[in-house]
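User: Look at the shape:
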Amino acid sequence: MKKYKLLSLLVVLVLQLSVNSAWSGALDPFAGQKGTLKIAGGTAHIPVIKEAAKLIMTANPDIRITIAGGGSGVGIKQVGESIIDIGNSGRKPTEQEIGTYNLHPVKWGIDGVGVVVNPDNPVTALSTQQLQGIFAGTITSWKELGGKDRSINIYDRDAASGTRSVFWKKGLKKSEVSKKANVVVSNGAMKTAIANDPYGIGFVSVGHIDASVAPVSLDGVAPTLDNVKSGKYPVARGLYSCTKGEPSGLAALLFDFLHSPEGRKIVEEKGFISVE
């Protein structure tokens, strides 16, 4: 038993040393800090925040960071009501939200929102007009778009989603969405739904697109990171993290880390565009 305990301690020490050597400069401000940081809201943010939190907590075990989803609306409301310390949002808070809650939004990334279908679906290019018809429920069969003679299953996000907000505004041009659409709660849930439905269509953060779903070009432009960076792909939004009042303590240190060269590298490795 003692042998296994010693081995576990050695693994932890090696892990801490490797983290400290690779990230020492960026993580130095967290040395000697203690406390808990509660974060919730937009789900697109989670891969970046989770990776940053892991590095911070490994370097300093006296810091605890908890991360939850819920959507942008939940993040804004909960941080405004002091339930959490940081509320993630895939859209900039409105002037009313900022005034009501005394919010301070910090932008650290830019993300695109791409239309996705099942990898077995041959329809991988649509016009804005076709996309509007699908989500409005006026185009009901994949056959009308060059696919199989099967009904189109629409997947949507709930009203609190920042991903949905930018998709509805910039992808659908604020057109109608059918009440028959299936509603899912996160980018991860959307990917799972589309991956398991050969006739489904939905939308996810470009940073979440992988082999489990097939990206759909919109008006001849693919939802890729390069196209988002160049501005060719217009369905894009900022990634914000909000505090109630000016950020301080661990929240301020986390924001500084996300804007450091090391933090920006994490943002880009997770499929987003970093912001200075």
